[in-house]
Specification:
It is built from six helices and nine strands; from the N terminus they run E-H-E-E-H-E-H-E-H-E-E-E-H-E-H. It is α/β, with parallel strands linked by helices. It has one domain: Rossmann fold (3-Layer(aba) Sandwich), CATH 3.40.50. Pfam families: F420_oxidored. GO terms for molecular function: oxidoreductase activity. Keywords: Oxidoreductase. This is Diguanylate cyclase.
Length: about 190
């Protein structure tokens, strides 16, 4: 059994927590006032602008943990671009700020409703995971497998850039009502 700490209790955090609990794993939700973080895996289920404050508040407690970045670094002022350099990613910024943690990028190409339903467009939902630590990717994949959700290793943490671009496209399509929040991209094997 793996313990999972989730920082953020919005729809994404709740959906991820439900999957982990369904698989028999221990789940705790962390708020900004918490000082202890018990999880082997810590999910940053917050908007990207909140991440810097979380790292400032909890950085030391995240050392030695697998930190899962689910953010899409949108420019919330325009909703028409990302706020990270074109050759970078939110995940790489987080990894640089947390050198004693293992950072993974995952869940940012999924909507909460598709995670909860375990389905997108009639196909099983798949979580894409990018990271430089194969053991950490296997650990997160096993948590998801316990709930009947498959994960695909999308490559090194460098692939977070492409995952964030895909997440950005999906979010803007949904915001423009070109796809629904229960839709999105599916990976058909």
């Amino acid at each position: 059994m793996t313990s999972v700490s989730i920082i953020g209790n919005g729809t994404m955090g709740t959906a991820i927590g439900a999957l982990a609990a369904e698989g028999g794993h221990t789940v705790e939700f962390i708020d900004r006032q918490s000082t202890a973080i018990a999880g082997d895996i810590v999910v940053l289920a917050v908007p990207y602008p909140s991440v810097a404050g979380i790292i400032a508040d909890h950085g030391a407690a995240l050392a030695g943990k697998v930190v899962v970045d689910i953010t899409n670094p949108l420019d919330f002022a325009t909703f028409d671009g990302l706020v990270v350099p074109a050759d970078g990613s939110a995940a790489s910024v987080i990894a640089e700020a947390l050198p004693a943690s293992t950072v993974l990028k995952a869940f940012n190409t999924n909507f909460a409703a598709t995670l909860a339903a375990k389905s997108v467009g009639g196909s099983p939902v798949t979580v894409l995971i990018a990271g430089d630590d194969d053991a950490a990717k296997r650990l997160l994949s096993s948590v998801l497998a316990g709930a009947g959700v498959s994960a695909v290793d999308a490559g090194s943490l460098k692939r977070a850039r492409e995952l964030e671009a895909l997440g950005f496209l999906q979010l803007t399509l949904a915001a423009q009502e070109k796809i629904s929040w229960t839709g999105g991209f599916a990976l058909v094997k």
